[in-house]
Amino acid sequence: MFYRLSDVDRPAFLDGMRIYAPTCAAIFSWGLVTGIAMGKSILTVPQALGMSLLVYAGSAQLAVLPLLAVKLPIWTVLLTAAMVNTRFIVFSAGLAPHFSHLSMLRRILLGYFNSDVLYLLFQARNFRPGYEPGKEAFFWGMALSSWIIWQSASIIGILLSSLFLDVWGLSLAGSLALIPIIVSAIIERSMLVAVVIAAVVALIGSDLPYRLSLPLAILAALLAGVVSDACANNKWVKILQCARRNSKASK
Predict the structure, then answer these.
(1) pLDDT number for residue 5
(2) Which residue pairs from 206-212 have beta carbons closer than 8 angstroms and sit at least 24 positions apart in sequence?
(3) 13 versus 237: which is more confidently predicted?
(4) How many helices (DSSP H) and strands (DSSP E) are in the chain?
(5) Which of 1, 82, 99, 155 is the most exposed place for a label (fewest CB within 10 A)?
(6) 168 DSSP 8-state letter
(7) Burial class (CB within 10 angstroms; exposed 0-12, middle 13-18, buried 19+) of 104
(8) Are 199 and 220 in contact (CB under 8 A)?
(9) Ordered DSSP codes for 48-69
(10) What pTM value is reported for the model?
């Protein structure tokens, strides 16, 4: 299938794989942690494998495992997973201008393969909205690399979970491995403000049920980023000046 790609798409696909390569160690570590957690849970091996392949969302998978263990109602499990994955609404909105010309089925497929790191790396390329030769192939180069690394690590963790001890602290290692990726994506002041605000909100709300701290942190980050951009561009000053002129005119 690779050789069936056009002369433009083939190098773009390889470029996507190259861009994603430095993150593979972090993704493998996080996938391994998630697989081990599922292997040690109440799920059977087929159920854990099915969750890994169908859900493909580490944060949501880890969030629902304790709920399944205490046999809470299924609506509670689904609500928790939805809350944890609200960030993908933001990701979808960011990708929509680039892939809106594709069919719905194709867009759904792109959505399944999308991930946090992939979205950051894709947006860092500053593609123009709309159709652009090689853009979708670049996405697929990263997406397939991510999926293969994640599923390989997750399946290894599920099948060999009994060999890994909890005292090894693999979950911390997985989190630490992702931090450099997040830091490298901070290229503007507004992004730094958003990250700091999100971290504070997430810490304050860490005891909230259903992992509500995550969607709250996302909303706070969006608001902080918008306000920061507006202040940087002096938009608030223009808005206040316009409001004053309108007020004087009405009098």
Answers:
(1) 76
(2) 210/76, 210/79, 210/80, 210/83, 211/59, 211/63, 211/80, 211/83, 211/84, 212/83
(3) 13
(4) 13, 0
(5) 1
(6) G
(7) exposed
(8) no
(9) HHHHHHHH--HHHHHHHHHHHH
(10) 0.73
